[in-house]
Amino acid sequence: MLTQPYHLYVERVDPDRNMARFYTLAIEPTLFGTPRLLRRWGRIGTLGRTMVHHFEREEDAVALFLELLRERRSRGYRVKRAVGLGRGQCPTRIDMQA
Fold first, then answer.
1. Is residue 61 part of a domain?
2. Is residue 41 part of a domain?
3. Interior CA angle at 53 toward 38 and 63, to 5°?
4. Predicted confidence (pLDDT) at residue 96 exceeds the cutoff of 80
5. How many domains does the chain have?
6. Prediction pTM value
7. Model confidence over 9-31: pLDDT tens digits?
8. What is the CATH number of the domain that holds 48?
9. 45-60: string of b/e by CB count within 10 Å (b at 16+)?
10. How deeply is 11 buried, as exposed, middle or buried, from its count of CB atoms within 10 A (0-12, 13-18, 19+)?
11. Count of other CB atoms within 10 angstroms of residue 72
């Protein structure tokens, strides 16, 4: 079982290059209690593509989660605030209005 929830949503937007990308990461338990890392990416406003990684230990899933986060941050992606997300939901767009 997971010790804490892991959910991340980042975007990279560059109007000059017509770039509007999102990337989500979430670590969730499977039906058997083992962790899986769910990745989703694509153009903002689309469903994008999905990839799932299965692990035996939560530590291995967290290590890949952090590695992918560092990689996305180095490519210009910025964290956006996720509001009202339930378990297993990955948004395609979150507007930052406070």
1. yes
2. yes
3. 90
4. no
5. 1
6. 0.77
7. 999 999 999 999 999 999 999 99
8. 2.20.140.10
9. eeebeeeeeebeebee
10. buried
11. 20
Residue that is written with structure tokens 């692990």 in the block: 55
* Tokens coding 30: 């499977």
Nearest in space to 20 (alpha carbons), one of 10, 7, 30: 10
CA pseudo-torsion sign 10, 71, 17, 43: negative
* Domain ranges, residue 42: 6-79
Q: Is the pLDDT of residue 97 over 50?
A: no
pLDDT tens, position by position, 36-89:
999 999 999 999 999 999 999 999 999 999 999 999 999 999 998 654 445 555
20: left (phi over 0), alpha (psi -120 to 50) or beta: beta
